[in-house]
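Ticket opened by: R.M.
Priority: normal
Category: complex prediction / small molecule

The reporter submitted a protein together with flavin-adenine dinucleotide and asked that the result be attached to this ticket for the collaborator who will pick it up next week. Submitted input follows.
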Amino acid sequence: MRTAVVVGAGIGGLATAGALARSGWQVTLLERADRVRPGRTALVLWPNGIRALRALGLGDGLDAIGTPLGESGVRRPDGHWLVQPRPVAAHRAPVVVHREDLHDALIAGLGDRLDIRTGVQVDDVRTGGTERPAVTAGRQAFAADLVVAADGTDSAVRARLAPESAVVSSGCTAWRAVIPWYRAPKSLEGRPAGGETLGAGYRFVAASLGERGSSGASTRGGVYWVATAAGAPRPEPPATQLTLLRRWYAGWPEPIADLLEATEPDDLVQQEVRELRPLPRSYAFAAGPGGVVLLGDAAHAMPHHLGQGACLAFEDAATLAAAVRDATPGLALRRAIEGYDRERRPRAATMVRQTRRMSAVLQTRGRLALRARDAALGQITPRLLGSAASTAAQWRPPA
Ligand SMILES: Cc1cc2nc3c(=O)[nH]c(=O)nc-3n(C[C@H](O)[C@H](O)[C@H](O)COP(=O)(O)OP(=O)(O)OC[C@H]3O[C@@H](n4cnc5c(N)ncnc54)[C@H](O)[C@@H]3O)c2cc1C
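Result attached by the on-call engineer:
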């Protein structure tokens, strides 16, 4: 039986492990945490991410938990529309999912033939000679025909195989929260919660997760928001961070103040935004009868400005699953992972380029630069977002 080790039980690792196990691989999933945990916030899934999940056979689960993003435009802090809200055709509409719901759907897709080992922190990888590739965690070694490194931005496997790629700060910090439906501001009743507001080094995006039970099987409705600000993470406790956020976003268009008011310190998740520079030179490393591949943030961590990180991880998983579906260990499997590398690197590079353009707009600082940015913002932002959305949407799963 063909064997695979997947390192990391984030959403990329879970999607890949499930896909391989369902197509007959014997899979061992290694996770450093003491249990496989979902994140506390939410994600926007764009049409490419949705297509990838469908290709992975997880579409039904998604239909039950996704809330369509609906009409949502982009405003300046003074309320001026940069991109007017307009209806989106159903097949092109992004959906918002609670991470716990997505996690449950991915866990359900793992099946029961998979070996999950928690509390295993991978610290090295072996790719020499004719032996099967292996990862090690202290004294333990896990060898398999295929090793999938889905161990996130700080990937230990990537650090070893692609040391040219470093993790650097993107120059900004993100705060996220899901306000549960029963605490959502009253002012939102009957009005859309969603939309994006873009200011000088600051950005605020909100999306509705529906009311309890209103989005199919999900009981995790509410309102999700993400605030991004240029600069380093704040060392203060969450209550003080929340006070700062309320101050920074004071006077911004409704419902931002109401959302921040309804947020409690425990809802808040602060994260430094980081990325890989440069991207790894390869996503596939042949070893013995197979090799090691990089997937998800381990392969292409990027700022969240276009909301594409998880979508690309699902694309990676769908592409890898299709590439190795019929590949037997030996030349066929090595060729299959080379094919994965050929497909995925240009795609990730394109999305990273688009994301960096958005980073540049977001981080413009200084009075003169800002005036120029404000003048150009009305033209640049719609074009940038439009072309990023269409590049993202172009992806089709391999046959
Ligand atoms: C503010 C913000 C908003 C975002 N919004 C969106 C969005 O709307 N849409 C979207 O598509 N993307 C979004 N993203 C990006 C998305 O969250 C990530 O791209 C995605 O979660 C990456 O998944 P992953 O499985 O590759 O990595 P991770 O989620 O980081 O998972 C890695 C897993 O590996 C484990 N691990 C790490 N090291 C080891 C080790 N040495 N041994 C064993 N296990 C290990 C970790 O514990 C973890 O479980 C956002 C990101 C941020 C920061």
